[in-house]
Inverse folding.
């Protein structure tokens, strides 16, 4: 096959995407401009309801904020671990890799429900705190934003760690030696050599964690609960309980759009980082 | 799409139910019935499906919550993905409004005589009752007397609130509104109290998550049906059912034949077998704990009635009135709870 013909390899996936992804998306967009799900008459009512309402705007902001905090929390834990992985011998490397992938082998539903056991009023954390005499009454963790972020940090960790490990694995060890022989301290090498080269991995991880945490319907609902207001639950409720499909479609597009904007900004940063 | 699937998994995971699909037979009829995920799915596969197999009918079950059945049937636009719905009153009225059901002829049920009068009509037939009241942990809190008790400080910090998304949630909140001096027409007293207790309530959230929170001690009081209480107790949870002083609320779970179904005869046989005495008797016992609609079957010990004929003594609700205002209540609940 000539180089010019290589693009044909992407055809099957492209066709499948057109059929099963782009077409439904267009239908979704059309629904948001319709008066009802039969698409017989058109109106901007759903968009006015979606964007002209402080509650929904707050919901967008909360959702993006949750994604950002999840990215921050996963990065804080994943970066040191990735550095340990880079410095470790083959056995420890394998252990870290397995530990990183392990959560992916459990369903997100199981992981979410396990967090009820950990965060609950009589859960593992509160029992430990009270047993050690650190607190006298249960600390509210379940159904709080910080509890949700704690859970999402574990749930989304592989999405941050795996791209990071891949990026660090590509660093030529000779570069570290070169930096050291030129008088760079460990910290300086880390800051000037390792982290810049790890940046594309970090950005890829951030994009995945952001998109996944912002749309984590089950974790948001079960661990976060009804007092925290996020877009995915609004979409579900309008579509499945209220049967207002145009509003559900408008909110779904709002969710997708706001997550895409952040993801696009991150990938732009990533492209810059790679060429820097 | 992933989230959509996850939510179904949530239902399945709640009951720890596996979802094997019945293999189609070479002969006889194959039909598809929607069924609630979890306990219902398990029960109908074990008890109802074998009865139909004797009549040469193979049933494939599609586990879907009531609102999901309505959404899926609407999305299918006249080409129903299953032959039989199983619904609570709210989604039932939606189904009627959207024209999703075939006209039902109760005379085709050989077991019609076993149902209390009026429990089968041109829309479908009742197949189980649900009795809704207050569930509490007797080792943690005193027995609540009525709906208004839930707003007292000793219960609020242990209360699990769910909104208007489910039938049991909606009628419980209506009963609370009434106990606080309101009504279906005036829910303001309820919302004022909800706003007041919001910061100290133990949990606000998805109905499907409440039994798990109760089991884990996050909440010690919730509103639910007798079925959930008996099921949790059978799994070793400290839980009792309290009939509120204004009476427990009851409603019927009904089955309907989907408009455009190609297996109408099999669908009638399926519903007929569902209300038959042996099936209702088996479903009313462990590990299923259904509230039977068959007059000849005695409900389980947790159900505060000795026969379905007593259903008239329970608080019931007019869903034709509730459905038009429910979207506003849902919106308002969201807003009050999100602060």
């Amino acid at each position: 096959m000539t180089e010019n013909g290589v693009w044909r390899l992407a055809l099957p996936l492209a066709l499948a995407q057109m059929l099963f992804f782009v077409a439904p998306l267009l239908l979704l967009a059309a629904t948001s401009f319709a008066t009802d799900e039969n698409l017989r008459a058109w109106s901007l009512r759903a968009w006015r309801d979606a964007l002209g309402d402080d509650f929904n705007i707050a919901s967008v902001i909360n959702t993006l904020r949750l994604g950002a905090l999840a990215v921050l929390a996963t990065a804080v834990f994943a970066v040191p671990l990735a550095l340990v992985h880079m410095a470790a011998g083959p056995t420890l490397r394998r252990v870290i890799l397995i530990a990183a992938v392990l959560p992916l082998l459990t369903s997100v539903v199981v992981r979410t429900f396990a967090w009820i056991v950990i965060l609950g009023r009589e859960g593992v954390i509160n029992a430990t705190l009270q047993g050690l005499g650190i607190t006298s009454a249960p600390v509210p963790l379940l159904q709080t934003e910080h509890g949700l972020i704690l859970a999402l940090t574990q749930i989304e960790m592989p999405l941050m760690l795996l791209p990071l490990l891949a990026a660090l694995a590509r660093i030529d060890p000779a570069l570290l030696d070169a930096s050291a022989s030129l008088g760079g301290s460990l910290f300086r090498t880390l800051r000037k050599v390792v982290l810049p080269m790890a940046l594309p991995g970090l950005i890829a991880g951030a994009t995945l964690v952001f998109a996944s945490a912002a749309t984590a319907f089950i974790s948001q609902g079960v661990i976060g609960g009804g007092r925290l207001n996020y877009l995915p639950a609004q979409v579900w409720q309008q579509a499945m309980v209220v049967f207002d499909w145009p509003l559900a479609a408008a909110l779904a597009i709002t969710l997708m759009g706001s997550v895409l904007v952040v993801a696009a900004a991150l990938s732009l940063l990533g492209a810059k980082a790679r060429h820097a | 799409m992933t989230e959509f699937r996850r939510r179904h998994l949530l239902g399945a995971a709640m009951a720890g139910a596996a979802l094997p699909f019945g293999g189609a037979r070479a002969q006889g009829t194959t039909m598809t019935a929607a069924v609630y995920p979890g306990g219902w799915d398990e029960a109908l596969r074990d008890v109802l499906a074998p009865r139909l197999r004797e009549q040469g009918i193979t049933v494939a079950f599609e586990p879907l919550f009531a609102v999901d059945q309505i959404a899926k049937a609407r999305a299918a636009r006249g080409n129903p993905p299953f032959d039989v719905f199983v619904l609570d009153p709210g989604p039932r009225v939606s189904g009627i409004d959207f024209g999703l059901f075939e006209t039902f002829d109760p005379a085709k049920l050989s077991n019609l005589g076993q149902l209390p009068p009026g429990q089968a009509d041109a829309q479908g037939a009742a197949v189980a009752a649900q009795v809704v009241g207050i569930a509490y942990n007797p080792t943690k809190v005193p027995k609540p007397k009525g709906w208004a008790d839930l707003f007292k400080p000793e219960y609020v910090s242990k209360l699990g609130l769910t909104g208007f998304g489910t039938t049991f949630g909606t009628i419980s909140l209506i009963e609370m509104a009434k106990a606080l001096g309101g009504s279906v027409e005036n829910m303001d007293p309820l919302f004022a109290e909800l706003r007041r207790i919001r910061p100290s309530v133990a949990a606000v959230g998805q109905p499907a998550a409440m039994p798990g929170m109760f089991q884990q001690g996050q909440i010690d009081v919730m509103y639910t049906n007798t079925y959930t209480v008996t099921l949790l107790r059978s799994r070793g949870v400290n839980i009792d059912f309290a009939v509120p002083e204004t009476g427990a609320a009851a409603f019927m779970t009904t089955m309907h034949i989907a408009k455009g179904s190609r297996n109408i005869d099999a669908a009638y046989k399926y519903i007929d077998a569902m209300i038959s005495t042996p099936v209702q008797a088996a479903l009313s016992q462990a590990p299923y704990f259904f509230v039977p609609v068959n007059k000849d079957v005695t409900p389980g010990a947790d159900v505060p009635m000795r026969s379905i004929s007593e259903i008239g003594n329970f608080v019931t609700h007019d869903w034709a009135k509730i459905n038009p205002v429910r979207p506003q209540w849902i919106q308002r609940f969201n807003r009050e709870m999100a602060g």
In short: The mean pLDDT of chain A is 89.
